Sequence to fold (222 residues):
Amino acid sequence: MRIAVLVKQVPRVEEMALDDSGRLRRDGVDLEMNAYCRRAVSKGVEIATASGGTCVVFTLGPTSAEDVLREAVAWGADAGILVSDPAFAGSDTLATARALAAALAADRPWDLILLGRNSIDADTGQVGPELAELLDLPFVAGVRELHLDGRAGQALCEYDDTWRTVTFRLPAVVSVAERLTNPCKAPPEDQANVPPERLRLLSAAQLGAGPWGTAASRAFST
Fold:
């Protein structure tokens, strides 16, 4: 199976603070992979290994976000793709989903796209369903248990006050809950030993004319 995993680099919880413009401060603070994304990477590597397939991890962010890709590859992912360009600055969740959808479409087809239920910095959970809509794929949210059988999937999903078992067909976009599996956590020395050819950069120009960033964000367009 060809598995794509989307991850996000976020500030460590204890260092989260807003700057003078009201945006989350990222300069001069320790950054790490979002906690839910760690589960997505772990499950993606697990499925790819069991099926004899591949797991490729994507992130949208500045050049520093390459660190989360290094950790994912050190954990067992086959490759990491950094979607990075000044043109992506100011992206809201919709613009982020548009850029990631373009990156995924450039390397399709995918059997399964995994991502965290939400990021701990913004906590919106919007990118997953937006991405699924843009790619015209089913979306399964908050997956606590996941079982795949050929092109069919079954998931136990957790919601605020209930559980639900759903069935779906592949390909699909799936957001994972915290207890789906153990998180990926690779030691620094393993991350440092990731070969550079396992990492790749995608620029805005490589993804097309856009619009990207602020121009693609809902607040700007409306």
Summary: The domain at 2-221 is CATH 3.40.50.620 (Rossmann fold). The chain has seven helices and eleven strands. The longest strand covers residues 139-149.
